[in-house]
Design a protein that fits this description.
The complex is a heterodimer.
Chain A (H helix, E strand, L loop, with lengths): L1 H17 L3 H22 L5 H29 L12 H20 L8 H20 L3 H22 L5 H28 L14
Helix pairs in contact in A: 1-2, 1-4, 1-5, 2-3, 2-6, 3-7, 4-5, 5-6, 6-7
Chain B lengths: L1 H17 L3 H24 L13 H28 L3 H23 L3 H19 L5 H34 L7 H7 L5 H19 L6 H9 L2 H27 L4 H25 L3 H22 L2 H31 L10 H4 L1 H14 L6 H15 L3 H27 L19 H15 L3 H10 L1 H4 L1
Classes of the chains: A mainly alpha, B mainly alpha.
Amino acid sequence: MTDILLIIFAITLVFMSIANRLGTYVNILFLQGLLLFGISFIELKEINTLNLAFILLETVIFKTIAVPFFMRYVIKRNKITREAEPYLPNFVSLVIVTSIIILTYLLSKTIQDPLLNKIYFVVALSALFTGLYIIMTRRKVITHVMGYLVIENGVFILSIAVGSEIPMLINTGILLDLFVSIFLLGIFINKIGDVLKDVDVGQLKQLKD
Amino acid sequence: MIIAYIVISFLIGVALFVNRNRIINYSLVSLFSVLQWVFILYLYHHRGQDATGYFNADSLAILMLITSGIIIPPAFYYSYIYFKIKKDQPRERGMYFSAMVVLAAAISAAYLANHIALMWVFVELTTLSAAALVYHRRNVRSLEGTWKYFFVSSISITLVFIGILFLTIALQQEGFTDLTYPALKKNASSLNGFWLRLTFIFIFTGYTAKMGLVPMHTVGIDAKDKAPSPAGALFSSIVMNMGFVGIFRVYEIISRTPLKEWADTILLVSAVLSIFVAAVYMMSVKNMKRMFAYSSIEHMGIAMLGIAAGGIGYYAALLHLVLHAITKSSLFFQMGQVYRIYNSKSLYDTGNYLKYNLTGAMVILLAFICGTAMPPSGLFVTEFMIFRSLFESHHFIFLAVILLLLTMIIWAFGKSIFRLLFTPAAGFNEAGMGKINPFESVPQLILLGAVIYLGINPPVQLVELINESVKYISY
């Protein structure tokens, strides 16, 4: 069951690489949040109730509801145009993201580890590199934040693979990190929206040598 | 004691944030400086190597804490001058000092953290407080600098977290769960090489954003440029040292495994590339603060060379970090005065500094001599030792390349510094020039004197601290 969910997650990554509208990106993030909820619900039954409740809270409330809602609010408030404006054509993005997934799969073939479920490793690393790729090839600042969220989702999958060994303290750290970073990034986008008329990276190029 | 220190510091930070009164502001800041030193002296006398708790005052942490204790009080002093001249709003002043106190406390906690994930949390906290300092001026450019700093730092800190997860996987295979540094060092040799490699690569890449090495070196440049000078001084000294501590503690774990040589190669390549990048940019950059920032990247590269080469290089690298922090912070403090005279950081608008501010020019000249590691600077001694360790470990080609690059750096640095000091400034109106009290430069001169003294005649306690810090890897 988790395998199916993880494969759907990988497909969302491919879909993200060819998405044109910002709204589609937000929907994909929403779907990824749901998938993460399903995966953690199935996978983490053995850990104690408090910890489980905490993780479920993180996926449902935070990743599935709060972040997409906040993203929509930011897009609407700053009147950001709907196009994602990639630097590269969609076909190239599709090829690159697919090859990222294939390469991480080949890398996972070299691991000799009976305890680790390799599909987690493949999907998590694919999400990491896809996120970095989206950050590199999109013009708008808000798509950079979305790429960062994809990276965070990948990290979350990896931390589920590590399993129940992570103590509460680190969990708190993850949530703190997510919470603070996403909301501060949002605030900055709002600030940038106040100062600059159209929010894309082209206007953030004054500092250079 | 450490928990109490963190709690009190954060309370002081909150109090500074809500307070609007100038007198209370300054007394709280002074209180924090005193607290910092009391805390350092207490830890120095109670230091232990193998604690099991979340915090541990080992020699490396104490060494870096003492360095930060030397740099933070002058940073407060120059911030005070900055606000006296600028006549800023009380709200902004409160936010600035609050962010600075929280930054200093979070850095101290990150030095002392004994648990790899706890260190990660505090490094994250330094990103937040540093972003507040970079954004202090609230214009488009500082917004851009803050955005870049914050975004790239967030990604790099995520990379560190992924590294920690890989380490957890490696530990689980062997049935360990303890993530404290002493336990990791003890169990390192039984861990799986594949996961350890991934751990090292991810954590190293993540912390290079803080330390200022290739590949994530770009983060710090904009931050040091856009933040006020005293904050820039902190970014290029104690924040960079924090990145080093993060890398060094993982390196210690790797150093007792068969992967040591592989890790050394990574450090060496990253260090040489850093020096190369610094040399290329220093030749062309016209903004002096950015130039100092690139010079910091060069020095971090040199320190990493010492770690990669081993032998006497370990000792020299740590001493190099301490001395570089003191030198570079005094240079940044002086930059505040330069900016007050010319209202510009560009080389095109400045010149004849010797005529307008004699003591300041002395500081610049002395800091140039110290920063480019000419005798009698302490950095000369450490760089000499690092080159010797490279020679002894048979890295002749690297040594030749580095010496060539360093020559270029000295030439580029010298060209700009002498232009600032001696050539007349084009179109500069002397009438509207700010006045500088010569006594303002005294703390900078004391810091630079310390660089020379500590390099030539390091006190026994300092040598002892450094030797204890590298004891584990140099066996």
